Amino acid sequence: MDLTAYRDLWKTHGVMALLASALIARLPVMATMVPLSFLAKDAAGNFGWAGVVAGAYSVGMAIASVVWSRLADRRGARWVVIGTGMAWGVLMAVVALLPYSWFRVLPVAAALAGVFVAPVTSALRASWPRLVQGARLRAIYALDATAQELLFVVGPMLGAIVVSFASPRAGLLACAVTAAAAIWWFGLKQRPATLHEKTDEPRPTARQLVFHRHRLGLLIAFACMVTGFASMSLGIVAFADEHGNRLIAGVLEMVAALGSLIGGLVGGALPGRRDSYVWRRMLAMTVLVTGCVFATSSVVALAVMLFAAGCLIAPTVGAIYERLGVMTPASARTEIFGWMLSGGMIGSAVGSAVAGTVVESLGVRYAWVLMAVLALVATLSVLHVPPHRPADADLEEVAAAA
């Protein structure tokens, strides 16, 4: 391991402040799903309606993600992020204050709130190639992917704590206020669009941007991975239920997240003296996920395999981020990450539905069979993606990708 890249990132002006503001801005949005689901359940009296409301919220996010990301590229991310963030805070407060007798309105209100989720993640990942290059760029994307794992763990937990000690309404109001302040802070750190950016660089159409010989493969790989993660999560829940102890699910999720956290930090600290191919990381993860198929007879064995597979999650996702960012023109970087997030949200919904059917029909271990197949498809989709090279050839790649 070589911590030089991390030390350089720490010294690079604006990098850590931008990352910190983005994490704090994303945290309340991640925490929202728990109080939103409980609010819908309390209002309607059943968790079925909670699923409808959560699904409506996710659909709104998936539809609007690309729209706001494209607008951020055209007009500058600063006021797009701040405007949508403030609107989201207001709409989420409205959702929190709706009378329980209006529970039939909740799906519409939740979908509208989902439409105004600020493109913080897309704007952040589009910013990195402007701030750092070479080994530091690879390290910051690995660090970004690792931090995302923390958000998935900490966000829902914070939402659950507020719901437990206060109420779902209080949880949503806390998320709305915190997000408004944090997103404003993050938005002010975005570089305003300049005249040069608006006129000089050609902006690809949506079709040109997505249906690119390398970018399309990366988008497919990411969607397959997220679909596989949804299958894995449902498989973990089914495994815990089969063993008669639901606490097992929390432990196994934590083990996989811990592996991803460690893998991401180690991956970002590797010296990177050789060409780094995305497909190699994908293939290694596929092999380890396949190992989970044969470890479902024992809690300990499955925990070990999930930890091992988890160690490849953040480094692989970080490599996809890095390749996608480098191989996209600066005028469309926010939009391409918007497409990535939309594909991921759709993949998550599809993965949960398909995995549920697979588990019911074939058994628990086939949740990991499904994930392994998806990981193999992802590997094949990135076989022809050029590697990250130690030499600073990134500018040439950007020109080629345009």
Can you give keywords for this protein?
mainly alpha; 18 helices; 0% strand; single chain; 402 residues; disordered C terminus
Task: Summarize the structure in words.
The structure is a single chain. With 402 residues, this protein is mainly α. 80% of the residues lie in helices and 0% in strands. The chain is built from 18 helices and no strands. The protein is globular. The two termini are 34 Å apart. Residues 195-199 and 392-402 have low confidence and may be disordered.
Tell me briefly what this model is.
The chain has 18 helices and no strands. It is mainly alpha-helical.
* Structural class category: mainly alpha
Beta-strand content bin: under 5%
The total of helices stands at: 18
Nearest-integer average pLDDT: 84
Give the terminus-to-terminus CA distance: 34 Å
Rg is 21 Å
What's the number of extended β-strand segments? 0
The main β sheet shows up as: none
- The SSE order reads HHHHHHHHHHHHHHHHHH
**Low-confidence runs (pLDDT<50, min 5 residues)?**
195-199, 392-402
Backbone shape: globular
DSSP helix fraction: over 70%
How does the SSE layout of this entry go?
Elements: H1 4-11, H2 15-31, H3 33-44, H4 47-75, H5 77-97, H6 106-115, H7 120-131, H8 134-165, H9 168-188, H10 195-199, H11 206-210, H12 215-242, H13 247-269, H14 278-293, H15 299-326, H16 333-362, H17 366-381, H18 394-401
Helix pairs in contact: 1-8, 2-7, 2-8, 2-9, 3-4, 3-8, 3-9, 4-5, 4-6, 4-16, 5-6, 5-9, 7-8, 7-16, 8-9, 8-13, 8-15, 12-13, 12-15, 12-16, 12-17, 13-15, 14-15, 14-17
